[in-house]
Amino acid sequence: MSFFISEAVAATSDAATTATQGQAGGLSMLVMPLLFLFIFYFMLWRPQSKRAKEQRELVDGLQKGDEIVTTGGMLGKVSEVSDKFLTVTIAADTVIKMQRNAVSTVLPKGTIKTL
What we know:
Number of helices: 2
Order of helices and strands: HEEEEEH
Strand order of the largest sheet: 4-3-2-1-5
Radius of gyration: 32 Å
Number of strands: 5
Structural class: alpha+beta
Strand content: 25-35%
Number of domains: 2
Largest sheet: 5 strands, antiparallel
């Protein structure tokens, strides 16, 4: 008979320990995804949105006479600006029309002459 009582006491204390561990495990299961979201935000999403904002400001600020570098690597001088397209002079009688989003960098004035 005492054999059954000791098993019952052991089972009760094991159940209490398991319940306490289950509560702690649930909290850690909630903390880990939040930690991953925090890391994802500061390592990936925030810097990418900052770069996109800077590119948008660069494209919106283009004016006639700006010297630019395209994403393809061509240098040119903006000769006309419209809503979605630019007319760029890349050589003495060579004019191309391109999308505004293809501009990667605006160079300081006079850079093309020094090259």
